[in-house]
Fold each of these.
Amino acid sequence: MDARFRGHDANTEFSDSAMPVEIERKFLVVGDTWRALVSHTQAMAQGYLAGPPHARCSVRVRIAGEAAFLNIKSIADGIARDEYEYAIPVADARRMLDTLAGSPVAKRRHHVTVGAHLFEIDEFEGDNAGLVAAEIELGSVDEAFERPAWLGREVSHLSRYYNLNLATHPYARWSAAERAGEDV
C-alpha cells in the first residue's frame, strides 16, 4: 500500500506525462513456501463505490490496518492503469463501507520481498476464500523481475481476478476452469 500511495498536494498541477500510472502484474500462488518469507501481514477490507458498467473508473474505499484510503483507478484490462489514491479518516472509510459500498472484499495481505521487488500476496476471505494471488508493481511494463517457484500462472489480463470483479462475482461461484486461470 505505501509504495502505491498516489495522493497529491491540492496545489500540485500535473502534465499528462506526470499522471500516476500503476503498472501491476498479478499471478496465482502455488503452494505455501512463500509463507516463510513474509515480512509483514495486514488485514484489509475494501468496497467499491462506483464502477462498471457505466463508469470509466472504479472508486474504492479500503481500510488497511489503522489507515484508510480512497482509490480511483481507470477501467482497463492489462497491467498499466491510471491510479489515484488518497488517505482518508478511518471513520469515514468505515461509514462508506457500511452505507455506500456493495459487497466488501476481505483479505489478508502478506508482503514478501524477492530480489529487488516486493510481492503483495493476498489471501482472500469470505466468498473469495481459497483464492491466493500475488501482485508485483513495476516501473515499466517490460521491467524484469526474479520469478520465485511459488509464483504460478499470470492472470494480469483476466479481469475476473480484479478485486472490483471479486466483489460482484466471488471466487466461490467460479467454475474449475476459471479457478485455474484459464481463458474461458
Note: The beta strands are 21-29, 38-50, 57-64, 67-74, 80-88, 105-114, 117-124, 132-137, 151-154.
Amino acid sequence: MTVVNRILAALLALMLLMGGLLAASEIVLAHLGRPPWLVPYSRWSVWLGERSPTDALIRAAMAALVVVGLLLMLTALRRGKPRHLVLPSNIEGVQVTASRRGIERSLAEAASRISRVRSVTVRAGRRRVKVRALTASRTEGQVQQQLTDTVTAQLGQLGLADRVRPRVSIVTGKSR
C-alpha cells in the first residue's frame, strides 16, 4: 500500500468514524427529545422533502459523490511498486527473486563508482529504473553516457536488461 493510499484510507476512516459518532449522538438526542447538537435535521428534512431527484443541485451532489467514489476506487486498485522483481532462472520450476531495494542499492553502488558522480538516487519499478545522479562535471553528456552504460550493464548482470528500461538524468552542481 503506497503512502498516498494509506493517507487517503486513514482520512476516509476518520471521516466515517466522526460521521458515525455524530449520527449516533444526534439519534440519541432526538430520542431524548432534545434539540439537535450540530445537524439541524428537521430543517434538512423539510428542505429535502421539497426537492426532487431532477433538481440541478441534487444531481450535482449525486454526480460529485459518484466521482469521489470512482477516484477512491481507482486509487485503491492502482498497483504499487513491487517488493520483489523476478530474475531469470536456469533451473526449471525455480523462481528467483530480488528485492526492489536490493536492486536499487546494487545499481546505486555501481553508478557511484563512476568518476565525477557525487551522489546517486535510484528508484526501481516493474518496467523502469529511474537513476538520478548529482555531478560537479560540466560535461553532462559523457557522464550520462557512462552512467547509462553502467546501469544497463548492471541490469544485464541481473538478467533484467530486456524487461527493465533505465531512465538516467544528470543534475549538475557547483564544485566546492
Note: The chain has a mean pLDDT of 86.
